[in-house]
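COMPLEX REQUEST
Ligand: 6-O-phosphono-beta-D-fructofuranose
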Amino acid sequence: MSGIAIMTSGGDAAGMNPAIKAAVDHSRSLGVDPYVVYDGLEGLIDGKIRLASNELTRDMIYRGGTLLRSSRSKRFFEYECRKQAYMHLKERGIDKLVIMGGDGSFRALNDFFNDFEIPFAGIPATIDNDIAGTDYCLGVDTAQNVILNCIDSVRDTARSHHRAFVIETMGRDCGYLAMTTALCSGADICIVPEIPYDLESIYDRLQGAIKEEGSCVIAVVAEGTRVAQYLTRWLTERAGMDTRLTVLGHVQRGGSPTARDRLMGTRFATRAVDALLNDEINKIMVYRDGLYSYATLDSVAGQQYAVNEEIVSLCRGLSR
Ligand code: F6P
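STATUS: Structure written out below.
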């Protein structure tokens, strides 16, 4: 009897719990023992592995984060630690892994495969939406909705005081979250790593809004630009607006997964289990141009993710 172990790695993302549940349920329905690993790669090294119980998955689908918990492991780069992880899997008869995370996590399991021939299936999961080869990563839709709720709330107070607000979103070096939420919130300014910005032309463009009674200015800035504080000062000093900075931070990673994240998680996870049982090993589940498929690790990890050109061009007008 073979076993599949399911784990989450790197930054948590909404949609991980629905995906864990789907992978457990689907494995079981196919006669494969579903195991879960707690604490990501760190837990794999330390043998925090249990047979998945009904209790674990019963109320899991609506919960944010990952009930398996996660980690960013440095120890997994050491061969001796990987060997320890392998021994824990071997003891339990586990010969396949499903991992949710980013390309660093996929690479780690590829090294593990090269050492011990334990195949894996990867599910892209990060609010940054910065994984090459897929248009969608788990957690993005929930994060976008959390951000939009925050911006809408900020807009209420901004308008009440005729203020400018700079709102910093996460996304590491990728501007996807900032661009999409700037567009969906009707922001006036969007500053992201992908687009050069021009403050003087923003100044000219916003003259109307700055002077108009009862108006406000909303700027969405991606954390990767590192200009949120600078822009706040600039709006105060150059544009003469009473300006506040709101750094959204980790609130963006939380929240109950949206319908989209629940469905994407369910579909990615059942496909991941099917891939492993059909000898499609070491593949990454991807969603591209409206279709699900499997990608090779090399076409995903280490490749540059590029935000959809149409989204970028819609945002250009908000950067100048
Ligand atoms: O990769 C997801 C992410 O939330 C990034 O957007 C952010 O830069 C980073 O993780 C924060 O990492 P940590 O949770 O370790 O502070």
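REMARKS: Residues 11, 126-128, 170-172, 223, 253 surround 6-O-phosphono-beta-D-fructofuranose (CB under 6 Å). The first helix runs from residue 16 to 29.
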